[in-house]
Amino acid sequence: MMQTEGKGYGPRPVQSGIAAPGPVPFKDAIIVAGFCILVGIVGCDSGRHVRVHPIPDSLASARIGESLVRHIPTSSEKTSGVVLRGGSALQGMDALWRWGRLSGDPNEVLGVLRTGLVDGNRGIFLVDESYVTVRYLSIGRDSVVLIGTEGQGPGEFFGPTGVALAGSDTLYITDSNMRVHRFSRASGGWTFERSLVLPFVAYDICTLRGKVFVIGNSAATPNVIHEIGEDGEVIQSFGTFYHTDSPLLQEIFTGFGYIECLEHLGVVVAVAPQLPEIHAYSSVGNMLWVAIIDRWSSPPIVATPRGGFTLDVDAVDAIDVIVGLVALPNGLVSIQVESRQIADLRERQDRPVLRSYVLDPTTGDGIEVKPKMPRILAAGPSHVVTYIDTLFPEITLHRYDP
Prior knowledge:
Elements: E1 2-5, E2 12-15, E3 18-19, E4 51-53, E5 68-72, E6 93-99, E7 113-119, E8 123-128, E9 133-138, E10 144-147, E11 160-166, E12 170-175, E13 179-186, E14 189-197, E15 204-208, E16 211-215, E17 225-228, E18 234-238, H1 247-254, E19 258-262, E20 267-271, E21 277-282, E22 287-293, E23 301-303, E24 309-311, E25 318-327, E26 333-341, H2 342-346, E27 353-359, E28 366-371, E29 375-379, E30 383-388, E31 394-400
C-alpha cells in the first residue's frame, strides 16, 4: 500500500514501511573545505552556486522494516485516542518561582541553557553552555551548587552538553571533548568520580533500566544512538537519521542531538535538530516508530566552486531547528521547534518563534501543537521547568498537579 508522509520534506512515497530512495547526498566529487554554521544566514564560501544538495531524505537510509511511520499535524486538533491528564501538556501547572539575575552573584547569572534535568523533589540540573558548567539549584531555591568548571582536568568541562541520573545518587554529564564525567551525590553537592573516554562526541545522555545511552556521530557507524559501558566502551549502536560520506555534513544534519529514556515504557526517543523527525527505539535498538513534523522549513545546502558550501536561504522563508526534547510528567513527550524568519535574519533581527509538539510515546501519534509558548527545559514527576532565552535568560519552576 502506497502512502505519503512528511510534507515538510516535499512528500515522499513510503511502501510497506520502507521509504523510497531519496536524493543522493554529497559524494567524493564535492569536497567540503570549510565549515561554519550560524543559526541565521550561513556562508562558508563565495562564488557561483554549482550544485544544490536538497534537504536530506533521512528515512531513505534508515532500516525501518514494518515500523509505523506517522507525522505530526500542525493543527491543534487531537489525532489520538490518548487522553491527556489535565487535558493539555501545560494545564494543571502552577508557577512557583522564577530565577535568573542581571548581575551580582555569578552563580545566579544564567547563560545559554542547552538542557536540564529535574532531580525528583530535590533540585534541578541546568546545563549552561555560556558559563561552561552545570548548576544544581535546589527546589526551594535556597542553594546553588556548581558542578564542574571550564578546563581539561578531572571533572572539568570543555563544553557540557547533557545530563542524566542513574538511580538517585549517580550523575552523568556529557562533555564535548569526547568524555562522559561521572559524579556521586555527597553532602552539600556532587563529588567527581571518573571520566569515561568515548570514541566520539556525545551531545546528550539518558539512562534506562541500568543501561546508559548517548547520542553522537561516530566514524565507525552511521548510527547515532550508542549504549556505553562502565569504561565508555560502545556496547551497541542503532538509530540512523541520515548518512553521508562527508563528516562535516553528517555533523550538520545529525549533530547536537537530544535523547530521552522513558523508563515506564523501556523506550529511547531521539531527535536531530536539523531534521524534522522524532525516532523511538526499544532498548535493544528495534525501531518502534518515526514521527515527521509537517511543514518543516530548512534551506538546501549549495556547493560552491571553491569546495565550500552555503545555505540557499532564498529557497525558503524560515529556518526551523529542534531545540528541545522532554518527557512530560503525564507520560507524553514534548518536542520544541524554534523558527526564525529569513527576512528577520537579513535585518539582523533575532526574533525566533517557538512551537511545541506533544506526542504519545507508545505510537508516535501527535496529540497537540502549542504555538508561542515558553520552551520546556526539563520535567519530573511533579515539576516542570520552562526557559526563556533572552539577553538575560530566565527559568520558571512549575508544580504539576493535574
